[in-house]
Amino acid sequence: MATLSTSPVLMVGEGWEDYGLVDSGHGRKLERYGNRRFVRPEPQAMWTPKSEQWDADGEFIPGSDEDGGGKWVFDREVPREGWPLAWNEVSFTASCTPFRHLGFFPDMAPVWDWMRGQLAGRSDAETMNLFGYTGVGTLALSAHGRVTHVDASKKSVAQARENAALAGLEDRPVRWMIDDAAKFAAREVRRGRRYDGIILDPPKFGRGPGGETWRLEENLPALLADCRQLLDADSRFLFLTVYAVRMSSLALAGLMDELFADLPGTIEHGDLAVREDAAGRLLPTAIFARWSNPA
Questions:
Q1: What is the pTM of this model?
Q2: Which residues form the S-adenosylmethionine-dependent methyltransferase domain (predicted)?
Q3: What is the pLDDT tens value at each position of the chain, 295 positions in all?
Q4: Residue 295 neighbours by CB distance under 10 Å
Q5: What DSSP element (H or E) covers 281?
Q6: Residues near 248 by Cβ (< 8 Å), separated by ≥ 6?
Q7: DSSP 86-142
Q8: Is the CB of residue 114 less than 8 Å from the CB of residue 239?
Q9: Which residue of 21, 94, 97, 237 has the lowest C-beta tally within 10 Å?
C-alpha cells in the first residue's frame, strides 16, 4: 500500500549555463535565456527586487484578463524564429511565445533530474509524457527507453520533433502523438498498456485537436485514474505538476492517495521553485504530487 507523506517537499531548480532567474519582485521576474534577458509577470514575487533597474531584451505585458492575454514589448531585436539553448544533452529552441513563456518550462529541470533518478540503470523503460509540449522532458526521458509523447497541439509536437533533431536525438525511441491527452490515456487503458513512468503537466484550461474541452478541476480525477491503470507494482513513478490554480499540493496528493492505495511506494507533494542566481531567494512556480516506487 502506498504511503502518503504529509510533509511537503520543495524541489528547487538551480540556474545553469543557458538559464537563470536573475531577480524578482513586485509581481515580475527577470530571467536569462542564453545571452538574452526577459521580464515576465510573476504574481508570487511579492517582495522587492534586489536591483532597481532591470536591463532586458523584452518584457511580456499581461492583458487585463488574469486568465490570459497580453503582448511582448521588445527593447532589442529578438529572433522571432527562436534561438538554441541546452539542458544537459538536450538541445532545444527558445522563443517568445504569445502565451508569455519561452517554449519550455525551466522550473521543470529538477523534475527531469528526479525522473532520471527513478529510472537509473534502465535503458528499456516505457514512459509517457502527457501534455508533452515541446518535448524537453520527453528527450530527457528517452535516455532510458521508449517514450510516448502526447500533445493536442500539432505545432507543439512539430517543435518537439525539431528539438529532437537539434539535439541530435532524432533516433531516440519516441512515439510522437498529436491527440487529446485524456482520450489517449483512456484508449491506452482499453488496450491493456502499461508504463514504467508517467509525467503529466496539464493546463488549467485547454482544447483537444477535435475541439475537446479540458478543465483541470473537472477532468483531472478521471485522467489520473486512467494513469493509475497504466501503472503496476513494477512501475517506477508518476509525476503531476499544476500551475496557476487555487488548490494545494496536499489536495493533489489526497487524490493520488485514493487512486494508488493498492500499489507499493510513496506519495509526496510540495512546491516547485527556482533559486535566484545571486540573492538565493526561492521563487515558487507550481505545485506537484508524485508517486514513486524505487526498485
A1: 0.94
A2: 78-210
A3: 899 999 999 999 999 999 999 999 999 999 999 999 999 999 999 999 999 999 999 999 998 765 568 999 999 999 999 999 999 999 999 999 998 999 999 999 999 999 999 999 999 999 999 999 999 999 999 999 999 999 999 999 999 999 999 999 999 999 999 999 999 999 999 999 999 999 999 988 878 777 778 788 899 999 999 999 999 999 999 999 998 777 899 999 999 999 999 999 999 999 999 999 988 999 999 999 999 999 7
A4: 9
A5: none
A6: 287
A7: EETTEEEEE---TTSS-SS-GGGHHHHHHHHHHTTT-SSEEEEEET-TTSHHHHHHG
A8: yes
A9: 97
In order of start, what are the domains of the chain with their CATH numbers?
Answer: 3-292 (3.40.50.150)
Residue 148's nearest CA partner among 162, 172, 130, 160 is 130
User: In this structure, is the dihedral angle defined by the CA atoms of residues 128, 204, 239 and 163, taken in order, positive or negative?
Assistant: positive
